[in-house]
Amino acid sequence: MLVGTSGWQYADWREVLYPAGLPQRLWLERYAACFPTVENNGAFYRLPRRETFEAWRDRTPEGFVMAVKASRFLTHIKRLRDPAEPVRRLMGVARGLGDRLGPVLVQLPPTLHADPGLLAECLGCFPPDVRVAVEPRHDTWWDEATREVLERHGAALCWADRLGRPATPLWRTADWGYVRFHEGAATPWPRYGDQALASWARRVTGTWTAGEDVHVYFNNDPGGAAVRDAVRFAALAGADLAPEGAALRGR
């Protein structure tokens, strides 16, 4: 199980993850010393150049994994139509991560109604060696047609949480998993409490074995909540952090 956060460049993580005085140009190195994985959600807003991905590869240790959120051009502007060129462009730059490249997250707009044919066409454009997770956000997607498309393409349904409750069906559609935590219900907002985290730890470990990959990302970044909750979840789920991550426990 690989546990991390969605992004790493948040100013209010100073003195939570980043020591006072640490320059922002060294934040990724510090992050990778504590967590084994990160979800790059900045690529959703503006797709970086290949050279930027190559630099991230060189700045992170061997074994580190960076998931990449697909560009909004594919998901929110094209709305999965004509996916071949956007997917080719995404993979052309993301391949710069080399062996650091993890899954690609395809997060669908909340207004996009189910269209399994469109989804199948999009998934078919990704290279067979690239893992893809899909996060639908409209209730019309929750049917067997969607599940069949995901299973046929080996794509993981992204299990999403909001306020401590599943926002998606808990389907296992691949031999690996992808989980996102958006907002907890504990105090201070948007933290997760131990009861919610322990429930999720049981769901995940009860669905995938220790030998199967599960990517878990906390997207509740205000106030350093994601850092604290990721560390606590890893402890409850028995997941390893990077060497310096253990020092974050108790913060």
Description:
The protein is of the alpha/beta class and 251 residues long. It has helices spanning 27-34, 42-45, 50-59, 72-77, 84-94, 116-124, 144-152, 194-207, 225-237, and strands at residues 2-6, 37-40, 65-69, 101-107, 132-135, 156-157, 159-162, 165-166, 177-181, 214-218. The chain contains 9 helices and 10 strands. It has a 10-stranded mixed beta sheet with strand order 6-5-4-3-2-1-10-9-7-8. Strand 1 (2-6), helix 1 (27-34) and strand 2 form a beta-alpha-beta unit. It is globular and about 50 Å long. The relative contact order is 0.16.
Span of the ends, CA to CA? 22 Å
Ranges where pLDDT stays below 50 over 5 or more residues in a row are: none
Spatial strand sequence of the major β-sheet: 6-5-4-3-2-1-10-9-7-8
Shape: globular
For the secondary structure, the number of strands is 10
Q: Return the average pLDDT rounded to an integer.
A: 97
Cα radius of gyration in angstroms: 17 Å
Counted by DSSP, the helix tally is: 9
Helix content: 25-40%
Tell me the series of helices and strands, N- to C-terminal. EHEHHEHHEHEHEEEEHEH
Largest sheet: 10 strands, mixed
Alpha-beta content class: alpha/beta
Beta-strand share of residues: 15-25%
Quick structural gist:
By secondary structure, this protein is an alpha/beta fold. It is built from nine helices and ten strands. The two termini are 22 Å apart.
Task: Show the helix and strand layout.
Blueprint: E1 2-6, H1 27-34, E2 37-40, H2 42-45, H3 50-59, E3 65-69, H4 72-77, H5 84-94, E4 101-107, H6 116-124, E5 132-135, H7 144-152, E6 156-157, E7 159-162, E8 165-166, E9 177-181, H8 194-207, E10 214-218, H9 225-237
Parallel strand pairs: 1-2, 1-10, 2-3, 3-4, 4-5, 5-6, 7-9, 9-10
Antiparallel strand pairs: 7-8
Helix pairs in contact: 6-7, 8-9
